[in-house]
## 1
Amino acid sequence: MNEIALLIAATLSAGTVLAIAGLGLLINERAGIVNLGAEGMMLVAAIAGFAVAVRTGSDGLAFMAGMGAGAVLALVFGWLVIWLNTNQYATGLALSLFGTGFSAFVGAPFTQEKLGDRFKFEIPGLVDIPLLGPALFKQHPMVYGAMLLAVALAWFLYRTRAGLVLRAVGESPESAHALGYPVRRIRLLAVVVGGALCGLAGAYLSVIYTPLWVEGMVSGRGWIALALTTFATWRPARVLLGAYLFGGVTMLQFHLQSEGVDIPSQFLTMLPYVATIVVLVLISRNPTWIKMNMPASLGKPFTPGG
């Protein structure tokens, strides 16, 4: 029973990284922008957050540094693809490669650094509930924050005027422009907010989830978060559920290893990525369904008056 509680708790923690990044990318794509640079942004944010945490001892400042790093990189990406009309896919890949190399260079002095003892969070009273208590009520506040973020984003997209405008920009930027909305500024704001959330995910990974800095430590989570948006058909609640699904698969490999399952560790390490490929293959078998849910202008440039 205790092992099940630990597995559920680890799944929620692992899924939080994917959920926050996935929700950030969802905001991008709802505005019609595809950002393939999530991996690079998360890596730069991870080292920025870790470095600040080491120097200041403040997790709050570390999260702010990670969000700032992600937002700055997203701002550069947005300026290139929205104002200069560079190819979104090529620019995103370039950002990912830049982030990988830059984080490795900047992070070299921090590979031997360690953070102090992490504060243990728990909700008094609820934590004593059998099974559910240790599984659900001993989590870092960011875990609950990711859940609230999904709810807030769903409300924003489907219950507010601003959310309707964002979705309109993603569906038909020409129509939104004709109605007087500043399409490029809306898209840039969506890209920066999405980048800040990817940065928050990277900082959470290095400051709370691990907590340490290792070159390339994001280990494909940015790509999985990107796949989550398609898996979730661009809906926040499904992004959250998908993040926990992939988080569970990630934790399953460690659980199987601890149980002494006689499977090469390399095959177990492959599980999250194999699961991602399988899910995308299954989804791609119904392109009509994807097309019905995908923002119509996704990946397409827009030039006012063009």
Note: The mean pLDDT is 90.
## 2
Amino acid sequence: MPTSTFTTDTRIRVPWPVDLASTLLPLQRGAWDPCHRTDGAAVWRVSRMESGPVTYRLTQDGPNGARAQLWGPGSAELHEQLPALLGAHDDPSGFAPEHPALVEAHRLFPALRITRTGRVFESLVPAVLEQRVHGVAAFASWRRLVTRFGEPAPGPAPTGMCVPPSAQVWRRIPSWEFHKANVDPARARTIVRCAQLADRLERLCDDPPDEAQRKLRSLPGIGVWTAAEVAQRAFGDADALSVGDYHLANVVGWSLLGGPLDDDGMVEYLEPLRPHRYRAVRLIAASGGYSRVPKRGPRTPITDHRGR
């Protein structure tokens, strides 16, 4: 599809109610993500498909779908992916929590779905950037690198939106450019190694989620947390639990037990909710779970690697 062409009034329907904004929220990497923008009722996103870049604008269109406009050579390919993006493959019917807080959150947010982008490398790079650092620093690194090495978004995208770099470009980014973006050598090496395997990584979407995560974790620099973050977005895995997250165990603990938990305690407590543990975490967050954690103790430091 030529970059000057877009599809108007394309309606996507999914089997159950979907709230567009909350479903796609995990794909946004900070308020100034150059690949994701919310403009009133519309969600704008930019992606790099196998067939090329695409810009798409989504708006809610009834309780079970959305309306889409698409620009760029990747439009036809992205169009096929839209139902999965809106949670068409996310079956919530087996989710039957017993805890009153989860029951209430599920009642309040019945249309929160688990998205599935099908783009593994595109989810992997920002997840690596978020390893062991404050989110503010990781989002700034992502914004700088995408803006510096990506390309302008096709179509009438909001100002500043960019297509993320291709795997070939990520492989060639010099070490000093990662340094300028406040990315330490370990994370930079992980991104470059993953870029070298990008074609193989994309095929993981065809594997069962547990097997796909196991293969991800076999890569140097990719641990349990990073693999889960990718699985949540690229595979639409409603059970992928981000073990090792700096805040998550405490959020789950204070939301469901009224006190702190460590990772082992969180895993044990959420075990009965398989295969919907990530769904439960999303509902906890949507219902204000992060605000329930007492504001005391040291905050995650914002590390600046550029002076080292």
Note: Strands lie at 10-13, 36-39, 42-49, 52-60, 65-71, 151-152, 162-163.
## 3
Amino acid sequence: MMMTAQSPLKILAAAACALALAGCASFPTTAGKVSKAEPAAPQLSIQSWQTDQGAKVLFVPSEALPMLDVRLVMHAGGARDGDQPGLASLTSALIGEGAEGLSVDDIARGFEDRGAHFSTGSYQDMGVVSLRTLSKPEWRDDAVDLLARVVGRPTFPQDALDRLRTRAMQGLKMEKQVPGPQVDKAFQRAVFGDHPYGHADSGTLESLPGITREDLRRFHERYYAAGNTVIALVGDVSREQAEAIAAELSAALPDGGPAPDLPRAKKAAERVVEHLTFPSNQTHILIGGQATWRGNPDHAALYVGNYILGGGGFASLLTQEVREKHGYVYGVSSFFQPMAAGGPFRLQLQTANDNADQALGVTMGLLRDFIANGPTQEQLDNAKANILGRRALETADNSDIIGQLGAIGFYDLPLDYLQRFNRQVKAVTVADIREAFQRALDADRLAIVSIGPEAPRLPQGGKDETQGQDQ
């Protein structure tokens, strides 16, 4: 029988399947094992060092599969746009569109021929470049070499800039036809104002046309510098191989040190109310404000408390009361989003226009009560069990681990952060949640931003009475 060599893509697919099956082997298989099983903190053996150029490296060896995940995380997100909203986003999008001696087709074909997957992303805090490849040297080394050229020496071709800018501007125009993006951006402005987090990192119709190739080069030279980069590595390579890969990538990046710290975002001094008039059958309402940041000692208490309030899906108080009991909304949820220099609390709901007033009134009442009193002990116990029960899944495969590594390195968290967080969750009390929410939120100083035919109003005479203002 003639044997044929498998392609890199088929090997990657087979490896992913094997990983999924391997995870099943660790599940409890008898009633006794289930009863004795206690949610375990994700165990990662993280190794860390710094390259000669100043890049921080985090590495987790994993021999389970013949794969390597690489992620470069830079302080190069939309908060670094300055007076050119969309600059970080366009820079990120154009990495991979051309590099010194390589066309976009050369780059795409180069990764594909090696069975590798390459991607970029841009967020408020960070720019991200990712590579997934097979760990065998004959494919890995070429893929890493190509990554180094692409991220280290991009050419930002004019035709690619024109194409991606046009696509971005078309997207912005389309956003005006649907309510969600409009109310999201209005909420961002209302919460952060003139802070670097306050502008739309996707850019504006006014800012995008003025961004040039030289702007992109300057941004890349400053914010994609080695000293401003975290290199995360997870996979089937040795420490010596990981050091060589990190050294090659670091040397390929521009010289330079870390970006300056962003100013800390401030809470609003008073309630902000804004309504956008839009002819829709639903009213979207966002409630929230600046509330937290990465490194906040209240993070575990806020996380667990929010799981009870609005982050736990159908088990959350907001869903049970506003959706299930009263039937006022199609969906309601909340979350904290900690970032380097701040982070909003965001409570969002969508409701039929006729129910908007009642939905807002009930939601604000629940939020005010939760801030004042916190959860019950039973609610807390159930939340802890659910949170800890799913924690192990957050490092179930390499793609999960690489995301955790990137965040730990980028936000300068301790290497045992995942284990510490589990211990903190287990230790959280009702009083901890109540006090943390009171430090983070003041119901009378939150932004209320809505979009729909008419501004929703809180009950007349109530403490939360507000008058919507059309913009």
Note: Residues 63 and 236 are 5 Å apart (CA to CA).
